[in-house]
Write a structure and sequence with these properties.
The protein is mostly beta strands. The protein is 4% helix and 32% strand. The strands form 8 sheets. Strands 1-2-31-28-27 form a 5-stranded antiparallel sheet, with no helix packed on it. Strand 1 and strand 2 form a beta hairpin. The longest helix has 17 residues.
Length: 421
């Protein structure tokens, strides 16, 4: 089985390279190991059509929609978003034309893919966050690296706007002092501005920030993490019905991460500090459910020796309840967050575990009863991203590897749907 900390290893390698660049050094970023390394060349991208299987007993139909081939993108890391026009939009963290720095794409629910934009470095590279559609109809997102700042060797990351037709505008290039390496998605708050986090940089240099940015690109740093109150936020924020913003950090005072609250004006409070026994390393954001409580995941679990991950519920005042601890066969290491489906249950993915140890899609009731509805196979491996539920009721998601494309010996990733009859 692949190392469960694959992306953290990759992210740490990239960050080390970036840090070296920020301090005047240099670094070479190697490709992470893969079970498919050295595999024979495979066919170029094609719409996969009826590549369908069923999970025994769960009655969910899995459909492989498309396989990336590198030229149209590779290694999709983020979740999809369905726009008001009915199409799905997303990003790939690598691939595309020119600088192969990642792409923005559109795909229909039937599986027709179109690459809208290929990043070239100065306008950003390695988009690892999901897009959001703003009130003006445009899509907004972040790139982990790139931009015009020279404070980091490969740029400190960007915030961008892109139309559904593919016209991209870079709104902001981070410069380390105001943050660096934004992994998480943006959220548009009730005031019309966007809010997000950076995993690095800020006045405390290495711990990251919370920021606000207007639709026209004016950025304000709201909070600088100091380590004790959190460090390394790689997740987006959510605005709750009380008007406050809620988020997570991957590290903090204990080293296991935190849950925090921040007002749109920047008043900050730590709500919960994980200690390992109640989970550790939350890499995903929170959602507020219909019961007005917040739900999320941790990548590592209550039984920390098993390193399997948890699903938790937390009140806006900080009372945390662990709803489920994964045990490998039902999934392991939920890197992504949750959605609440139209049936009231929550849906998510695990990076590892499941019947085949290549990750799983699961359903969990608000009470904590969990059902694994699909276990990925070798050709559909490693869903870093969560799922979304489209207007047609189907679930859509991406896998970081898998498919039939070949990217220097790695499978390039794919987009899939899951349908319940």
């Amino acid at each position: 089985m692949r190392n469960i900390t694959l992306f953290r290893t990759l992210a740490a390698t990239l960050t080390a390279a970036f840090i070296a660049g920020c301090s005047g050094g240099s670094a070479i970023v190697p490709k992470p190991e893969s079970p498919q390394a050295g595999a024979a060349a495979r066919p170029n991208h094609a719409q996969l059509g009826p590549v369908i299987s069923r999970t025994a007993g769960a009655m969910w139909t899995f459909n492989a929609l498309i396989s990336f081939n590198g030229g149209d993108g590779s290694f999709p890391y983020a979740s999809l978003v369905q726009a008001t026009n009915g199409n799905l939009y997303g990003t790939t963290s690598e691939g595309g034309t020119g600088f192969i720095a990642g792409t923005v794409f559109k795909i229909t629910t039937a599986g027709v893919l179109k690459t809208l934009y290929s990043f070239q470095g100065s306008d950003g590279f390695n988009p690892t966050s999901a897009l959001i559609q703003a009130k003006n109809g445009d899509l907004y997102g972040t790139t982990e690296g790139g931009g015009i700042s020279t404070a980091c060797q490969f740029g400190c990351g960007t915030v961008f706007r892109i139309t559904t037709g593919g016209t991209l505008t870079t709104l902001h290039s981070f410069d380390l002092a105001d943050g660096a390496y934004p992994y998480g998605s943006l959220v548009q708050a009730n005031d019309g501005d966007f809010y997000g986090t950076t995993s690095y940089g800020g006045t405390n240099n290495i711990h990251g920030t919370v920021f606000r940015i207007t639709p026209h690109g004016r950025l304000t740093t709201l909070h600088n993490f100091n380590g004790a109150d959190g460090s390394g936020s790689v997740a987006g924020l959510t605005q709750a019905t009380d008007g406050n913003l809620y988020g997570t950090t991957e590290s903090g005072a204990t080293g296991y991460g935190t849950v925090f609250r921040i007002t749109p004006s920047g008043v900050f409070a730590t709500l919960h500090v994980f200690d390992g026994t109640d989970g550790g390393y939350p890499t995903a954001g929170l959602i507020q459910a219909t019961d007005r409580k917040l739900y999320g995941t941790t990548e590592y679990g209550q039984y920390f020796g098993d390193l399997t991950g948890t699903v938790f519920r937390i009140t806006p005042r900080g009372r945390l309840t662990t709803l489920h601890t994964f045990h490998q066969t039902d999934g392991a290491n939920p890197f992504a967050g949750l959605i609440q489906g139209i049936d009231g249950n929550f849906y998510g993915t695990t990076l590892n575990g499941g019947a085949n140890n290549f990750g799983a899609v699961y359903r969990i009731a608000p009470s904590g009863t969990l059902t694994t509805i699909y276990s990925f196979q070798n050709s559909q491996a490693y869903p870093f991203a969560g799922v979304i539920q489209a207007a047609n009721g189907q679930l859509f998601g991406t896998t970081y590897e898998g498919g039939n494309g070949n990217c220097d010996g790695f499978f390039c990733g794919m987009i899939y749907s899951l349908k319940k009859p």
